[in-house]
Amino acid sequence: MDTLFVRVGGDQFFVDLVDRFYVGVAGDPLLRPLYPDDLAESSRHLALFLMQYWGGPRTYGEERGHPRLRMRHAPFVIGPGERDAWLRHMLGALLDLESASRISAADAIELRDYLEMAANSLVNSP
Q1: For a designed S-S bond to 20, which of 4, 27, 61, 93 qualifies (C-beta 3.0 to 4.6 A apart)?
Q2: Which domains does the chain have, with CATH numbers?
Q3: What is the pLDDT of residues 86-97, one digit of tens each?
Q4: Do the Cβ atoms of 17 and 93 come closer than 8 Å?
Q5: In Å, how far are 39, 86, 88, 108 from 80, measured between CA atoms?
Q6: Of residues 71 and 48, more confidently modeled
Q7: Burial of 125 (0-12, 13-18, 19+ CB in 10 A)
Q8: Cα(56)–Cα(2) distance, rounded to whole angstroms?
Q9: What is the pLDDT at residue 1?
């Protein structure tokens, strides 16, 4: 059985998803301060993480070790507002790709469910 990584077309899908996501982050007054001035490294890390998670190359783990998402995000205050803004931009990016027929409805649902779970798990402040 093909992985989601293969079904969506590999690396390029995740690069495009993350690029669209970071366009939203760059203009978001709540999220932008949480990121470094240059978004390139953050963008690369997120794309590599998502590729690996969904069955693609293990580059993220080779370069950065275990994802430890909660630990990596612990220095930042992530409340419901930050979670909602992050999800708005990520799900908007996903919808753009789904609307362009770059991903099936079933794969979009699987991704959406994961993104919502991940965003909720990183909330560390009321």
Answers
A1: 93
A2: 8-121 (1.10.490.10)
A3: 999 999 999 999
A4: yes
A5: 23, 10, 12, 23
A6: 48
A7: exposed
A8: 11
A9: 76
pTM tops 0.90, yes or no: yes
CB contact set of 110 (below 8 Å; sequence gap of 6+):
4
pLDDT tens per residue, range 18-66: 999 999 999 999 999 999 999 999 999 999 999 999 999 999 999 998 9
What single letter denotes the amino acid at residue 106? Answer: A
Alpha-carbon distance 29 to 121, whole Å?
22
The letter for the amino acid at 82 is E
Q: Distance between CA 24 and CA 90 in Å, rounded? A: 8
Cα–Cα distance between 106 and 112 in angstroms, integer? 10
